[in-house]
Structures are given as structure tokens and as C-alpha cells.
Hints:
By secondary structure, the protein is α+β, with helices and mostly antiparallel strands. The protein has helices spanning 2-36, 93-102, 117-120, 246-258, 269-277, 284-293, 355-360, 367-379, 388-394, 398-401; strands at residues 53-60, 65-74, 77-80, 86-88, 108-111, 138-143, 149-158, 165-169, 176-180, 205-215, 221-232, 235-238, 261-266, 295-297, 303-305, 309-314, 318-327, 345-353, 382-386.
Amino acid sequence: MKELIKTGAFVMVAIALSVAASRSAPERRTAAIFSETGETFYPKYTDPSAVKTIEVVDYDESTAAARPFQVAFEKGRWILPANYNYVIDVGDRLEKTAGALVEIKKENVVGDSVSEHGKFGVIDPLDSKSASLSGRGKRVTLRDARKDILADFVLGKTVEGKPGFRYLRTPGDKRVYAVKTDADPSARFADWVNADLLRIASSTIRRVSIVSYNIDDSGRLANIDQVQITHDKNDWQIAGGGSFHKSVINAMANALDTLKITDVRPKPPSLAESLKSGKMEMSLEGMMSLRQKGYFVSPQGRLMATEGEMLVEINNGVGYTLRFGEVATTGDAKPTAPAAANENRYLFVTATFDPQRAAKYGDTSGSGEGIARDLNNRFSEWYYVIRATDFNRLRVRRKDLGLPPAAPPGPQR
């Protein structure tokens, strides 16, 4: 009997301890959560300048595919490794982005369960174990010069009703936070390159020549048409006089001023070197490369483009020739957009300097010579890809200007 009483007493004590533990465990968890409030996620990472690589993985729900992107510092330059090591000028942008990620603090805990990750949009876009095609976030990883991880986050949805807040967690951790941050690195090429590709201010444009033509089977030009527009005293004039749609020209000038590329393709080294020298010496490799992008060299040695060209003269004597090639099948255009919006185009650009042209426009400083040389050295290495919207604004035709069609002049040798 005494043994039964002892056993019963032990059972009662065990039950009491279990109840006490169940009551105190949430309190301990709550205390742990509060104890980390206000802390940064990576306390050892305090110097934004230590970042030498930023990796961004976005997720496209329309294609159920992750989009990885990387910016890296190599040999004293910031480059885009996945885009043929295209050199970019990030200025202080990357350091500001890195700094914003450094400053993120653990604030409001909103979830502690994997089952809630989709609701907050913090499923890792690289998580192959998750079957969910929605609710995936953007993963941002910062690395130092040794490729060691300095910080790693999955950025989720914005918090409804709390401007400046978004959901976030660290990979490998179930806990989700609502944090205050404006950090949102892009995984798109166009968002990392300078908008001012041509370095043309619309106010400095003095003359634009728009050239259209067809290329026959023998490589000769046919149906050549040229429209010349001048800009003087803050007004546009068209050669031959008459009325035209100035709004179309204003849109074209603005496109030249803010032209942004969505991708690049490298030219063969032999072609790039010949362009730098200004001689256009063609190798078989160069000829094949040009043809693939929609460019041809006439028997007379003139470079032609399937979609015509335009010459832009600015007041310091620099002249730009923009040649429009074939449709570029890749880039930042989304496959769900209408077909016309997807027709990104190849753009071939060259720059020259003419002192007589500069003098005509009142500039005798000679500054345009160095500018043209620097531009041409940069342009010589790349075929650029521009958006269909910019192509349409630049590729102005007579009908767009409200002009009557030109009479075909016939073939030219």
C-alpha cells in the first residue's frame, strides 16, 4: 500500500513538472525573441566597402524560373560576369545597397513556421525541395574578396499597411520578420548600367539625318530615303520646309538623351580592334558576326544595317552613327508581354569628330575630339541591345512625321 502511495506521489510530481514546463517554455521563447529585438542579422558585418560581390536571385512566377544575377569587383573594375564581363560604373550605388542591408535590424517576428513562408513571400527562390510556384522571394547574398558570405537574406512581400516594411528571413532559418528597409537590389541588367549610353544631352543636338533603305540580294542599296532635321534656337526644322509632327522628334531626342541598354554582345576582338583604329578591316569572323546581328558590308566597304541608320550631330562636333540591326532574342523583355514589346534590337554605334562641324556649331574648344575617341573605344567592343520602345522612338519614318512618301530613287551601286 505504501508503495502505491509513493508511486502516486511521483506521478503527481511528474505531472506538475510537465505542466510547469509547458507554461514556462513559451515564456522562454518569448523572452528569446524579445532579447534579439534591435539586433542586426549579421553583427560581424559592419563595413559595406568589404562587399566585392553581390548576388541577386529573383523569381519569375510566369515561367516558374529563378533569375540569378551577379555584380562583381575584379581587377579594379565592377563587372557583370553573366553578361560577358561588361564593365559598369556603380559609383556609390553598391555601397549604399550594401549599407542598407547592413542596417537591417530584427524587429517584429511574424512567423516561426515553414508553412507560413509562402504567405509572406519568403520561400527561397533556389529551394528545389519546395513544390510551391508562388510565394517565393528574392535572395540577396553579399560576399567579400575571398567569396565568404557577409550577409544572406530572402526578401519577401511588402507589409500591408506599413510603408517601408517588408517580410524577411535568413536562409536556413524558419523565423520570419517584418523589418524596415528600402534595400531591393535588382536582378535586371538594365538597372545596373548607366542610362546615358550615348552621353548626349537633347539640348546639344544640332542635326539628325534619318536614313532608310532596302538591301537587295546582291548587297546593293535600294529605295534610299533620307530625312534631315535641324535644331536651332530651341526649335526643330525639317529640310525642304513644311509642317511635321514635332512631338515625334521631341520623343526621339529624349530617347537619345536617356537611351538605356538591356543587354550586350561582344564583338570579335579583330573587329573591335579595327573599329578602334577607324579602319574597319574585315576578317571572316567579323563578317559572320555582323551578318548574325543584321549588319552587312557593301562591295564599296560601307557598313549597312537591316533597319537603317541615323546620324546625330551635336554642338561640340561629335557625330554619332546609330545602325539598327536584327531582333535580339534575349534580354530583359518578359516573354509574357505582347510580341511587339519583345522585339529588342541590336544597335551598332560609332562616334567621330569633325573640327569643321564643331566650328559650324560655334565650338572651337576641340573638346569633342577626346570625347569621340573615348566613346568610340567603348562602342567598338559591343553590340548593344535596346528595348523595342526605344527602337520605335528612334527609328522615325516619314509617315511617323506626317510627311508624304518619298519617290523611290532606284538602286545605287
